[in-house]
Design goal:
- The protein has 429 residues and is an alpha/beta fold.
- The chain has helices at 3-16, 52-59, 116-125, 141-149, 164-170, 175-187, 208-217, 244-258, 277-282, 340-343, 353-359, 362-365, 381-384, 423-427, and strands spanning 21-25, 102-106, 129-134, 154-158, 193-199, 222-226, 294-297, 323-326, 331-333, 346-347, 399-401, 407-409.
- The relative contact order is 0.13.
Length: 429
């Protein structure tokens, strides 16, 4: 799509701001200790898991006139700003659910919640889809059957390298084997929208071809790649951050994979020896394993000459435009990876979630505030808008510790100077 046409599309999407994805940070407990974790999750988190009933009360504020079942028994009503007849909100925006809302369970590790089945069933009972982001450690055949029975529609599992490289990243010697097991199970499920994500760093960059071959041999159809910004634990891990030259190397790798014919055979070094040779090469004989896997780069930032070479569409940060989140403490925000102290818009324990979505979030929908520092002089700002919202974090020297030993930003949004990373500069120099 031509850049000016895409900017027009982005403007219309922003004006309508249809809510398509609602992330729920249902726990901050995690069985692993990942080096790149932006949430600093631990086995014993400082915040207790949010009760399901609390989240459902917030979810029930979102109008769902296309759902035929009786209103859930939580006692919630449609927000006053919603016009049932016209399907429009107070601000005159189009009804958000022309496509079904998807609730994405994230954490921490969602599979640590013993009520995971009930969560899924309650979301589906309300007419919404639900999906999950998991490290795959606890994803067994039995767990898979439970989640599918609860109506899970989509799943994302992380794989951050081959063997010990993945284990180094995840901080557990059994993590790689368990992730491979989880991927093998999920890739076979035809009813599931499944993808694998990889966080690229200096250690696993040389393994990208091997990861590609491994995932292809397991039957994975979509592989999503992202890099790391210096937030959370990643600020203390220099091996996680690619140089500009390595970023270009990664972009060239993705572009080459995306340019392959969709029915070309995979590389020769197939790892799963249980696949018959003719199946591994062609996906024939009903194996269900694809001969092609779509490789995409995430929506981290604008990439200039690499736009549409590494993604199916041009860069567009949907945080606060089509994406919202309910965080562990009830905060209402956009993508869970952004600076929650700076950008949270309310709290479900005192605010109506849908009214906050309709009447706030202006900082995400009008990005003129980001045209500062290096962005103020950039001719690509109209295409980039300052990059992904997760790139706008308070710097470490603007963080203080309050009386409860919790980090808090002393900055206001207007005082932010520069994004933490500029993908355009890193890949177009």
């Amino acid at each position: 799509m031509l850049p000016f046409l895409f900017r027009r599309f982005r403007s219309l999407e922003t004006k309508v701001h249809e809510l398509n994805y609602l992330f729920w940070e249902c726990t901050q407990r995690c069985n692993l200790s990942c080096r790149h974790c932006g949430s600093d999750c631990f086995t014993s988190a400082k915040d207790q898991d949010m009760p399901l009933e609390d989240f459902l009360k917030a979810l029930d504020t979102i109008p769902n006139p296309g759902h035929s079942e009786k209103q859930p028994a939580s006692g919630s009503q449609q927000p006053k700003s919603f016009n049932q007849k016209s399907g429009r909100g107070k601000a005159g925006s189009q009804r958000f659910n022309t496509r079904r809302l998807t609730v994405v369970l994230t954490g921490g590790e969602p599979l640590l919640r013993p009520d995971i089945d009930r969560i899924g069933k309650e979301i589906r009972r309300r007419g919404h889809y639900w999906s999950m982001v998991s490290n795959g450690f606890f994803y067994t055949e039995e767990m898979h059957r439970r989640l599918m029975a609860a109506g899970m529609n989509a799943l994302t599992i992380s794989l951050d390298g081959i063997g010990e490289t993945h284990n180094w990243m995840r901080g557990n010697p059994k993590s790689y084997d368990n992730a491979i097991r989880a991927i093998s199970i999920a890739a076979k499920e035809r009813r599931l929208d499944f993808d694998v994500v990889t966080c690229v760093n200096k250690r696993n960059l040389p393994q990208m071809e091997e990861i590609y071959s491994t995932l292809l041999s397991l039957g994975v159809k979509r592989w999503r790649i992202f890099t790391i910004i210096p937030i959370g634990r990643a600020t203390q891990e220099p091996d996680l951050h690619l140089s500009n030259q390595e970023m270009v190397q990664l972009m060239d790798f993705i572009a080459a994979k995306r340019s392959k014919p969709k029915h070309s055979p995979p590389p020769a070094n197939i790892h799963n020896t249980n696949i018959p040779a003719n199946d591994a090469k062609t996906g024939a004989n009903g194996s269900g394993r694809p001969a092609y896997m779509e490789v995409t780069f995430s929506c981290e930032g604008y990439l200039g000459k690499y736009e549409e070479k590494v993604r199916p569409v041009r860069f567009f940060c949907h945080a606060g435009v089509n994406i919202a989140s309910v965080l562990i403490d009830g905060s209402i925000c956009a993508c869970p990876n952004i600076d929650r102290d700076l950008f949270s818009q309310g709290n479900i324990y005192r605010d109506n979630l849908y009214e906050v979505w309709e009447n706030k979030f202006q900082v995400f929908r009008n990005r003129n505030w980001a045209k500062k520092g290096t962005c103020s002089r950039c001719p690509q700002f109209k295409n980039c808008l300052g990059g992904g919202m997760h790139n706008w974090h308070a710097s470490p020297d603007s963080i203080t510790i309050n009386d409860h030993s919790s980090p808090q930003s002393t900055l206001k949004i207007s005082e932010l100077k520069n994004p933490l990373s500029c993908h355009y500069r890193r890949t177009n120099t």
